Every structure is written in structure tokens, then in C-alpha cells.
Amino acid sequence: MTADAFLLYGTRAVEAEPVRLKAGALSADFVNGNLRTIRHGGTEVLRAIAYIVRDRDWGTYEPELTDLVIDQGTDAFSVSYSASCMEPGGSRLDFQAAIKGSADGTLVFDVSALPESDFETNRCGFCILHPIAGLAGSAVTVEHTDGSAVATKLPELIDPWQPFKDLRAITHEVRPGVAAECRMEGDTFEMEDQRNWSDASYKTYVRPLALPWPYVLPAGQANKQTVSLRITGGDSAPPASAAAAPVRVTLGETGVRLPDIGVIIYPDEVETALANLPTLSELGPQQLIFHYDPTRGHGLAALQSFARLAAAHPAGTTLECVVACTGDLDAELSDVAGMARQAELRLSAIAVSPSVDRQSTPPGSAWPECPPLEDVYAAARRAFPDIRLGGGMFSYFTELNRKRVPAGQLDFITHCTCPIVHAADDLSVMQSLEALPFITQSARAIFGTKPYRIGPSTIAMRQNPYGGATKDNPGGQRIAMADRDPRHAGQFAAAWTIGYAARVAPAGLEQLTLSAFTGPFGVLAASGEPVAEGQPRPIFGAIKGLCDLAGLAHVATSTSDETKVLALAGRSASGETIAWLANLTADEVRVDVSVLGQDQLVMAPYAIARIG
């Protein structure tokens, strides 16, 4: 509740500090009823064990905990509590939880749930998250519900569907000589590759997606589930602590050019953009992306407003064009092209996507009716023969991975990401950056060297492919699937933005869009934010820094602890190296930047810094 928190997060609300539970070499953080960062001997074994209740739009309930008891002994710990979730219609689900951990490497999380009345949900039960760093592509043993065991591997490239089904247990190597078995009882579990959504985990969850949802938990019928973790082998003693050394920056080879930077523009934000042209020029984006959606009433007036801005600001222009696909494709796209000519809208490119493709098609669900994408792209090419044509998904990599578009007809591929699809806490949002290299590698494996664009990708969710709508967030909270996020106005977003660009730089994108210019996704503040209305938000400095790097040769840059600091560097034709660093943590971090001509840098929480 401090001014510093307001500057960092755009809200005075701070997250509850986790309770560190320890038993010998085993440790876990207890946060809001669930376990995070489960380690053994300092190595992360599981990212989380969480009991999750979701509504019919896949929103996550925030249960109220009561009767919380935490007992921390010398060689063991235990936690117990009661909790409840309330449906908008008034139905209530109560549950009792018990957690026990011991120095022999065992951890048990048990929950018994009892609906007071019929309770509708899309999911009710445990989610177990395996980390991806060091585990992607590694060997595991999977035990199925029929008792059979299979030696296999976690996917290296992102699996569009569930890599493992009918799960009872999964065992992996924590470090040489140490194995972890995670056993799940009380229902049938399956695993999905959460990297699809830029989550940094493989998620094992309860109730197969092929079964109907939403579903009803009958009144008075108890539901009990248990997750147990058993770690065997190795030294049971925790590692000796050492003084934290500075994070060290290392430079490597010079490679592909850094991408042009875009900003998304919506029709109702054009007037504000025109009123702030000097600030737009100072920001310096190489591309304006104009969002055009006839299913939301956009027409000639929207294109005329875009034309005014395009004429006033010298930059490339891309029309992000939703295709309704309700009639003749040639007629629909020719009508858009005719209005663009009438508006005298100067366009460098158009990206098209059927409206129905903005909604996800989960495993086991029927694909919605949609014209063949070959036909959509051919009609767009006929309507706009003289500019570049892009396609892909205006939603997330998940949808592009599951519906792989015919790229041969396209000049570039595009998709977005969003870090708050499943969780919205600070740690999860920053950890989502770990998944981005896997997304770009997987996209390259599918589409090869086809020019590749990402964005608009922002912390807040532009549209919800998984439910009826994004979540309203009038209170400025940390909410999954929210249409706006307070951290976008704080220093947090600036660090996340530099970290994002650093993670995707090796992929050789031609364009990256991580903000709007105005509005809830923009670089200019609204009222009630850490900076005055109309003034640049902290993310402005990050986006401007990326605009300045655009076109420079990417210099491979790494740090000794990329969970704390990420770095992005570019080299000009004259040989000058410019680097941007981001502190991804809420703590002050010392950074060894001697490779960049300075000795040491002390970075404040979520700070960004330019060197060169």
C-alpha cells in the first residue's frame, strides 16, 4: 500500500507474501491456498500444485480461505484450511484442504469438495505445473489410469493437443540421481502444453476436455482428489547458501535484424492520437496497425479516420481486417478495398482472419463453419493486389498451432500472445517470457522462413477466445482474462516489454507490436495512474527504446540468471552496440555489465536501462 507499489504496478494493491514451507531439502511457497515453486535441493521440481475452480467462461474463482492453520516443524510442515467459491447465481462450493510435507521428500495435497447446491463449472480440481526450463524434450515415465507405464518424452516443440491422456502419475529426473514422481488420484487427468498460451509450464489437469463442459457438480455429492509428490535419490540435505553474485551479461554473435515496432490503433482512439502527434513522432513506431472489424460496426468512417492519421504520421500501415465470412468473400473484401480507396487510406499491408477464428476450438469440440482459408486469402489478394498480404490468427499461438494456415498464399504470418489467460499474478506474468522462445521456434518449424510478425501482445487481454467476453476490471485488480490490467501503467510493464523483445529477438521477426498508442493498451496515461493523464506511461520508454533498435543487427545476448535480468542488444552499421536491460523482479539486482564497457549496474525493481 505504498507509493512505490503504485509506481511499480499501477495499483496500490500488493500481492500477499508467500509463506515459505520447508522440510529438509524440500521447500514450497504457500500462496492463496496453493503451492508454488516446489523445490528439492534448490532445484525447481514443480512450478505449482493448485486446486482450481473455473466458471463457464474459464474465469478462475478466488476462494475465500478460513480456519487456516500452518505448522512448520523441523523436518516437516502441514497446512489445513477451509474455502468456498460462490457462483453468480448464488450456488456455493465448499472444500477442505490439507497439505503435508516431510524431509524424506514426500508432499501430499488433499482436497475434499462438497457443493451446497448444484454448482456449474468448466473445471474443478487440481492443476499441476511442470516447469519448462531444463525439462522441455526430456525423458519422463507416464503411468496411465489402466496401470500401464510408458517411457516417453515431454514435447520440445509445442504440442497443439494433449501430449498425454488418462494420466495417473508422471515421473521425471530432477537432477542426476534424483527422481520425482507426481501421482494424481480422484479423477482422470491429462496434460496440455501450456506454452501454447505463453505459460511457462506443462499443465496436468483434472477432467478430460473431450468430456462436456460446463458441467454440474451435484448438490451434496463429495468430490475428493489427492496429489502426492515423492522425491527419491540424492542427498536429503539442502544446499549451502552462498552470497548472491551479480547477474552477468554476455554478448555473442551478430545475427538477424531487429524487428520494426508497431502500435495498434482502434477507430475510437484516432482523435486522441491526432491530438498527440508530437508524442507519436517522439515514440517513433515504424508501423501503425489499424484494427478494422465489420462485425463491430466498423465501416467507411473508421477507414477515413485511419486515413487522417496515416497522412499525418509517416510510417508503414497495416490493416488488421476481420473478415465476417457471412456471404460472398469477393464482395465483402472488395467492399473493404473500395471504401479504403474512397477514404484515401494509404496501406502497406493487410492482414486478414475470419471472425470465427478468433474463438478457440478446444480438443474434442466441433470446428465452427468457416470458408476454406485458401478462399479467404485468394479473395483478399484479388481485392488488394498491390500490397502485402498477411494471415494467421488475431488471437494466440494456440489457435495458429491448432489451425495451421496455408502460408504459401501469404507474404507474412501473424499471431498474438497474452500472459494472463490462466493466471494473473506477478510471478506468472513474468515467467510467461520463458515460453516465448518455444513459441517462435515452433512457429518457425511450421512455417519455415516465412516473414513473421507477433502482436499486438499486451498484458491485458484484447479479446477472449475461450469465453463470451474478456473480464471487466473496474477495480484495477490482477485478474486473469481481464480487458485491462493496472500493471500496464506501471514500471512492471516496461520491464515485461523489454523482456518480451529480448526473448523473441533470435527468431528474426519482421515486426513486433507490444502496445497501442492510446487507450488501455497504450503508452499514454489515463486518469488515476502513477503519471498524469496524457503523459507517457513507463512503457513509453520501453517501446521507444525498441523503436530505436529497429533495423539494427541483433547481437546474441544472455545473462547468468534470466529469471532476474534479460538483455537485448543491437549493433549499428558503424559498429556501435546499444543494449537494453530489464530487471524482471521486485528486488534490487546488481548486474555485471563489463562486457558493455561499464563495471556494474544496480537496477531497481522492474527497472529498465539503456547502455550505449
Oligomer: single chain
Mean pLDDT across all residues, rounded? 95
Low-confidence stretches: none
Number of strands: 33
Helix amount: 10-25%
Q: Treating each run of at least 4 consecutive H or I residues as one helix, how many helices?
A: 11
**How much strand?**
35-45%
Task: Provide the CATH superfamily of the largest domain.
Answer: Glycosidases
Domain count: the total is 3
Radius of gyration: 25 Å
Q: What would you call the shape? A: globular
Structural class of the secondary structure composition? alpha+beta
Q: Briefly, what CATH class of the largest domain?
A: Alpha Beta
What is the CATH T-level topology of the largest domain?
Answer: TIM Barrel
Cα(first) to Cα(last) distance is 36 Å
Architecture (CATH level 2) name of the largest domain:
Alpha-Beta Barrel
Describe the structure in your own words.
With 612 residues, the protein is an alpha+beta fold. The protein is built from 11 helices and 33 strands. The strands form 4 sheets. It has a 16-stranded antiparallel β-sheet that branches. An 8-stranded parallel barrel has the order 20-21-22-23-24-25-26-27, surrounded by 4 helices. Strands 32-31-19-28-29-30-33 form a 7-stranded mixed β-sheet, with helices on one face. Helix 4 packs across helix 5 (329-343), helix 5 packs parallel to helix 6 (373-383) and helix 10 (491-504) packs parallel to helix 11. The protein is globular and about 70 Å long. The model has no long low-confidence stretch (mean pLDDT 95).
